Fold this sequence. Notes:
By secondary structure, this protein is an alpha+beta fold. Helix content is about 45%, strand content about 20%. It has a single domain (about 5-89), classed as Hypothetical Cytosolic Protein, Chain: A, CATH 3.30.1230. The chain contains three helices and five strands.
Amino acid sequence: MKKSQPIRMCLACRSRHPQNTLIRLKQSGNDVVVHNGEGRSFYLCIDCVKNEKKVKGLVKRFKQDEERFVKLLTELALNVNTCEKSHLN
């Protein structure tokens, strides 16, 4: 019998997705960084990462430098997409 995957909610759009398809981040001081296993974290779905309006809202919400934040999200989105493809094979 197969175990069910954990379901998590995207912070931006409040939609629910399997945990392995989401990007996990945390706020460390004034910066948003990749979650390292310590402290509280939040998840973002790929659709929200690609949506400019949602990204601008997140930049404002977390008081981030937009250029650095967008770069971080695009790098992480590429990693999630490659991981999904490798799990499908």
